[in-house]
Amino acid sequence: MSAGSEAGPRAPGTGAGSPAGPDARSRRQLALMLAPYLAGLVGLVLLPALVTLALAFTHYDLVRPPAWAGFDNFTALVEDPIFRIALTNTVVFAVVAVPLRVLLALGLALLLHRRTPGAGTARAAALLPTAVPEIAYGLLWLWLLNPLYGPINQVLRVGGENGLTALGRTPPQWLTDPTDARAAIILVSLFTMGETFVVLLAARRALPRDVYEMAAIEDATGWDVFRRITLPLMAPVLALLALRDAIASLHFTFVSAFVVTDGGPPPYATTYLSLFVYQTGFEYLRYGYAAAATLVMMVLTLAAVLVQWRLVRRYRRFYPR
Amino acid sequence: MSEAGLVLDGVSAAYRTETVLHEVDLAVARGELLVVLGPSGAGKSTVLRVAAGLEPVTAGRVRIAGRDVTDQRPGLRNVSMVFQSYALFPHLTVAENIAFGLEVRDTPHRVARERARAAAETVGCAGLLDRRPGQLSGGERQRVALARALVREPDVFLLDEPLSNLDLALRVEMRAELRALHDRLGATMVHVTHDQTEALVLADRIAVLRDGRIEQVGTPEEIWRTPATVFVARFVGSPAMNLLPAGGPLQPAGDPPALPVEAQIGFRPEAVNLDTGHGAPAIVDRIEVVGEDAYVYLTLEGGKPVVARVPTTRRPDRGAAVRVGVRWTDTHVFDATSGRRLAP
Amino acid sequence: MRGRNRGPSPLPERAARLWRSLGAAFVILVFVPPLLLLVSGSLTEPGLPPSPTPQLVPDPVSTAGYERALDLGGLLRASLNSVLVAVVAVPLSVLVASLAGFALARLAPRTTAVVVAASLVALMVPPTALLVPRFAIFRFLGLTDTLVPLIAPALLGTSPLYVLVYYLAFRALPADLYDACQVEDLSPVRTWWQVALPLVRPVTAGLTALTFILTWSNFLDPLIYVYDRDLFTLPLALRSLSLLDPTNFPVFLAGAVIATLPALGVFVLAQRRFLHDHSDPRE
Ligand SMILES: Nc1ncnc2c1ncn2[C@@H]1O[C@H](COP(=O)(O)OP(=O)(O)OP(=O)(O)O)[C@@H](O)[C@H]1O
Ligand SMILES: [Mg+2]
């Protein structure tokens, strides 16, 4: 792999504290240690990303060799109503669900970071759904959300009559009404913010304790402490997590949409880009078209990265170290 | 004693089940600078934390400026604290750090900034107002922490080893500045340290703390001349005071006071005279030369160690046989079992 | 602030503690019931008309769902496949990640910077975005409809994130330690194996658990690469089970319970390492 050539010509002991092993044998060994990962990184991520770029400009059905298509795929995408719906759904989901997920995780981390009775159990409980395999989790919600015999609506109907809630309203038609279905997908995704939660928990615990004692002596109240100390100190982590979550949100809608709502209810209320790519590629075998949609997805990611980057940069100016 | 600034009245405190302060009584007069001195782990920080309300008491009362604040939260006690680690807010500038206490108390922004600037000038860090703590040296951070404490007019300043992170030269300088600042403000200050020199130089009075108990409270002079216990006697002074059984190998010269059977005599190394030609015979074990002074480590007949401090030019040779002489007037007498002072 | 890691309990904190405990109880009440319902649903007698009222304990309690899930869905065979994949992929993945993390911590800063940057870029690419090209590549290599594409992510350490975590952990070890190893003329591999790896054991434990959970739960890859029923992994078998009779929820919930248990088990074993109060970094 290229690691050898990268590490090879480096002068031994470049500068103070350079961790590079001084002799060629060590450097060769280190390069070998890195090689499998580099192979994976290039072969499984970077190369496929390039292939996407190429395939996006072809017609390709896996049977015949790819045929050059120029910008056909992209013009088709622009005119494809399903794609437009999927794109809107994806952006709306990211804009609604990601802040909710991060806020929820932040709230939980601030609530549970201390040693209080029950906090340990609550921390584990908040993480549990994240450990459940996606598909099992999806199937669980498929049942929980069933408008007729799902437990959620059963509970909502307690005290009401004729299938209405106690307030005399019809319970949400989770899987058949477009708005309710979108809400359901967001609800489902809220439960799996475990990773974000763990990181925020660690970040909160890493904040220096004496700073909070100082604030107590100055009689800063709960809201003041949050606004003036906790939030600014955690802001870099929060920004990173929000970015990560925004990117992940392109993906983690897939299983719930695939299993729970199957992209419906019609017309395509919960078809997200991930599902669109999957269906176009693997159900309709239009790989070139799917690649073009994928490219749009990556551009979206890039946009998210840039936006966040600017925010972090702006923050950095206030917070040099 | 004049009006009280801070009073601890039989205060006990515990971490979980382990009691670390045992019925501490301490009264700091208004305008006084009291230094709490003690070895590591004695409970010095705990005394401050209890006074600030960061740690609850298990018994006793805390009074500040005549108010009983035992059940008040820290923010209502009107104290300022300089933490051992300074506890500066890393995301705020120096100016914002200093003004923090004012702004959370809803002081108008401009007023807060103005007072922050004034406080910064007092401690000589006005040139740093726009920096962040990450861009400051240790000494500068310390000044900022101090300025943050000064910006309000609290009833008591609590300073937890504020000089311990500084190098020697800076420490000596800041020590003098701190004292000058105190005299200028006339503020009530409690200053914690484990450095006896710092305590002796800085304090109006010193409280010596050991294992969560007060051993002695007194002026630096009292602590030095009439240590109340063996612990105080040996903790203050370097090398530590010599201790020998009263009826033992060394008999001080002069008129002996009336002694009980079980007594110990103590004398400082500088009270030992090696030139008199009489006194108890001893062998020189080793010699440490510290500039003008030499510390001579001796062994008396019977194996008891004694340290003497002599001018370097007059030091004996290693292995030499000398005679160790002390006078009763330089000797402290302690009860051998309780360690309490008996005479003079 | 040495040795001070208990919660502060100055006086008015007591009320706050009570509120926090109530909050914790609320969190438990929100997050646990869905999983309890999963178990309770799986123990319902299949084929009965759904009860009109919510039931936490089904009446009658029946394990018929599990029996049917096992023989209808071929879950046994699928579990074997899943175990096979996990047994190969998880150790391989942790090995790759720790080797690479170590190498990054020891190589010249510029090499490291390039690889770390590439890893960050890779982290930014959502997995779904790689479906089509990866599929084209594996098909080109003739590896579709085998378990190889399911094991392949191990080469990446499952996620570049894990490599970076190892990198940070190794870099955080004192530099003196590496110098001492160099003085003793330990080769990098031996330094890694004998000195560095034992020192980051908690990281290894945590990452192994995460890798296992991710590998075990992987649904998208099998969905795309595997068509032969005999090669189905548990998540895929579970899906076809749910397609068989979407209304017969006790059967597919039983399958879901079976698929969830190993992941939850590993999670419970690992969670005390990263959730415990001892992990308070202020010592
Ligand atoms: N959080 C804690 N939990 C349990 N014991 C503690 C805690 N903090 C301090 N202690 C104990 O309380 C005693 C007094 O601690 P304190 O911090 O007041 O000592 P100190 O005199 O300030 O020491 P130093 O000079 O080292 O700062 C020590 O024995 C210490 O071990
Ligand atoms: Mg202390």
**Number of structural units classed as domains of chain B:** 2
CATH superfamily of chain A: MetI-like
How is the quaternary structure best described? heterotrimer
> What is the number of beta strands of chain A?
2
Mean pLDDT of chain B: 89
The greatest interface between two protein chains, and residues involved on each side, is: A-C, 112 and 111 residues
Give the N-to-C terminal Cα separation of chain A: 36 Å
Overall strand count of chain B: 18
Give average pLDDT of chain A, whole number.
81
Keywords:
heterotrimer; A: 321 residues; MetI-like fold; 13 helices; disordered N terminus; B: 344 residues; alpha+beta; Rossmann fold; 2 domains; 6-stranded mixed beta sheet; 4-stranded antiparallel beta sheet; 8 helices; 18 strands; elongated; binds magnesium ion
Structure, explained:
Chain C: It is found in: Cell membrane. Chain C: It is a multi-pass membrane protein. Chain C: It holds the Pfam family BPD_transp_1. Chain A has 13 helices and 2 strands, in the order ααββααααααααααα. Chain A is an all-alpha fold and 321 residues long. Chain A has a single domain, classed as MetI-like (MetI-like fold), CATH 1.10.3720.10. A two-stranded antiparallel sheet of chain A has the order 1-2. In chain A, a hairpin with a 7-residue loop joins β1 and β2 (67-68). In chain A, α8 (178-190) crosses α11 (222-261). The longest helix of chain A is centred in the last third of the chain and has 40 residues, at 222-261. The model of chain A is unreliable at 1-21 (pLDDT under 50). With 344 residues, chain B is an alpha+beta fold. Chain B is 24% helix and 32% strand. Chain B has 8 helices and 18 strands. A 6-stranded mixed sheet of chain B has the order 6-7-8-3-9-10, sandwiched between helices. Chain B has a 4-stranded antiparallel sheet with strand order 2-1-4-5, with helices on one face. With 283 residues, chain C is mainly alpha-helical. Chain C has one domain (31-279): MetI-like fold (Orthogonal Bundle), CATH 1.10.3720. Chain C has 14 helices and no strands. The longest helix of chain C is centred in the first third of the chain and has 32 residues, at 75-106. Chain C is globular, with a radius of gyration of 24 Å. Mean pLDDT of chain C is 83; it is low at 1-11 and 278-283. Chains in contact: A-B, A-C, B-C. The interface between A and C is large, with 112 and 111 residues. Adenosine-5'-triphosphate (ATP) sits between chains B (15, 18, 20, 38, 40-46, 194) and C (3-4, 6).
